């Protein structure tokens, strides 16, 4: 279990100060190459020093409450920039770098993002393709974040209260146009505590994350939760996973990862890759949690995942489906790992589902393609119960 936070930790700034002091010598973040070897590694003390230096720069060019657009690549500089915004009382706005197409340029899309977020500053790496054009724009300040931000003296900063906005999280846009969700310090701390209890993160955690950090799944699972627990997060290049899903699991084995995360398509792609190479093996026995969310989860993918990973030392209860949304920080429901039981696969009457009723069918697997019905049965994957405080909607 993670070390409990003291009672004075009521915002992310006090959490940052406490964690960096309490775990100062422990490794906080590691940036990996495609072969799994480290490029950069920071302890919590190193992280605090670099965040202080960048926070001082932000204080110099912005005002409290200003919104700061982050166009940073995943890794050390991203994490430093995010925390520098949060602890300095600026509102971080993580976003994917805008890309142009035949209809609109990347700069046009950036203007739209800045206007929608109400940002006054754009933080970007030194080699960003929009740097020259972005720096010449009169509507914002373009701030280049070095690949290795220098440590510096901490500025004098007021303490935020729990209702202060910590960061602006844009929704995925899966059900409509992406919208910016205003998340307060209290929101993040409350939901973080719930997710920590469910996921079993602690000071021995080694989170392996290849997800984009501008997405809520990557930000919370890859940055915030390991930090709250006092563990480490190791950032693996997204493109290396996309090139070959087996790279994900090879790296998890080499690094002794205890936690990792990904959407359904990533596990489905991993299963196909493993099935295509039946003699391929790695040791995944150190893995305690492999969370899955962000997309509908197919029962056949879960069954196949159990089959192909069992010879690699992976226990069935490691696979942990969840459901969430940016409006709830991340998690809304989740598999309770402390039960020690694998996720439930629930066979339901397919026609009854179409009528808005859940009718259990006899126990047994209804094998299929994971998308359709088999013999009138649709097998659903349980994403677990809602967490404390999730609430329920009632009609009438």
List the helices and strands and how they pair.
Layout: H1 12-22, E1 27-32, E2 38-43, H2 44-61, E3 67-70, H3 76-87, E4 91-94, H4 106-117, E5 119-124, H5 131-135, E6 141-144, E7 165-170, E8 180-184, H6 185-199, E9 206-209, H7 216-229, E10 232-235, H8 238-243, H9 246-255, E11 259-263, H10 264-276, E12 289-293, H11 299-309, E13 319-324, E14 331-334, E15 345-349, H12 350-354, E16 377-381
Parallel strand pairs: 1-10, 3-4, 3-5, 5-6, 9-10, 9-11, 11-12, 12-13
Antiparallel strand pairs: 1-2, 7-8, 13-14, 15-16
How does this structure look, described?
With 396 residues, the chain is of the alpha/beta class. It has a domain at 12-187: ANL, N-terminal domain (Rossmann fold, 3-Layer(aba) Sandwich), CATH 3.40.50. It is 33% helix and 20% strand. The protein has twelve helices and 16 strands. It has helices spanning 12-22, 44-61, 76-87, 106-117, 131-135, 185-199, 216-229, 238-243, 246-255, 264-276, 299-309, 350-354; strands at residues 27-32, 38-43, 67-70, 91-94, 119-124, 141-144, 165-170, 180-184, 206-209, 232-235, 259-263, 289-293, 319-324, 331-334, 345-349, 377-381. The strands form four sheets. An eight-stranded mixed sheet has the order 2-1-10-9-11-12-13-14, sandwiched between helices. It has a four-stranded parallel sheet with strand order 4-3-5-6, sandwiched between helices. A two-stranded antiparallel ribbon has the order 7-8. α3 links the parallel β3 (67-70) and β4. The longest helix has 18 residues, at 44-61.
């Amino acid at each position: 279990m993670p070390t409990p936070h003291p009672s004075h930790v009521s915002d992310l700034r006090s959490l940052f100060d406490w964690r960096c002091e309490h775990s100062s010598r422990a490794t906080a973040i590691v940036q990996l190459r495609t072969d799994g070897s480290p490029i950069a590694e920071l302890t919590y003390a190193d992280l605090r020093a670099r965040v202080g230096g960048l926070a001082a720069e932000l204080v110099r060019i912005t005002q409290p409450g200003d919104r700061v657009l982050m166009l940073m690549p995943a890794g050390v500089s991203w994490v430093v920039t995010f925390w520098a915004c949060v602890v300095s009382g600026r509102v971080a706005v993580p976003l994917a770098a805008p890309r142009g197409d035949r209809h609109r340029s990347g700069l046009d899309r950036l203007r739209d993002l800045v206007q929608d977020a109400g940002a006054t500053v754009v933080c970007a790496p030194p080699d960003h393709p929009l740097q020259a054009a972005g720096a010449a724009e009169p509507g914002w300040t373009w701030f280049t974040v070095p690949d290795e931000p220098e440590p510096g003296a901490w500025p004098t900063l007021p303490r935020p209260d729990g209702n202060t906005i910590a960061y602006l999280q844009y929704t995925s846009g899966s059900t409509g146009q992406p919208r910016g969700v205003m998340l307060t310090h209290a929101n993040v701390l409350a939901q973080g505590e719930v997710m920590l209890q469910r996921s079993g993160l602690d000071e021995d955690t080694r989170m392996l994350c290849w997800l984009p950090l501008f997405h809520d799944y990557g930000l919370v699972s890859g940055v915030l939760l390991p930090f709250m627990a006092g563990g480490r997060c190791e950032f693996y290049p997204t493109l290396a996973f996309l090139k070959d899903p087996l790279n994900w699991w090879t790296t998890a084995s080499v690094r002794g990862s205890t936690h990792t995360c990904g959407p359904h398509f990533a596990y489905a792609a991993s299963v196909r890759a493993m099935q295509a190479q039946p003699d391929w093996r790695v040791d995944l026995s150190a893995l305690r949690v492999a969370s899955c969310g962000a997309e509908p989860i197919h029962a056949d993918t879960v069954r196949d995942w159990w089959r192909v990973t069992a010879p690699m030392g992976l226990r069935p209860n490691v696979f942990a489906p969840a459901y969430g949304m940016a409006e709830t920080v991340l998690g809304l429901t989740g598999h309770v790992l402390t039960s020690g039981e694998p996720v439930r696969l629930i066979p339901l009457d397919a026609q009854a589902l179409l009528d808005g009723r859940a009718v259990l069918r006899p126990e047994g697997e209804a094998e299929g393609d994971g998308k359709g019905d088999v013999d009138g049965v649709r097998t659903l994957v349980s994403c677990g119960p809602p967490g404390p405080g999730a609430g329920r909607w009632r009609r009438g």
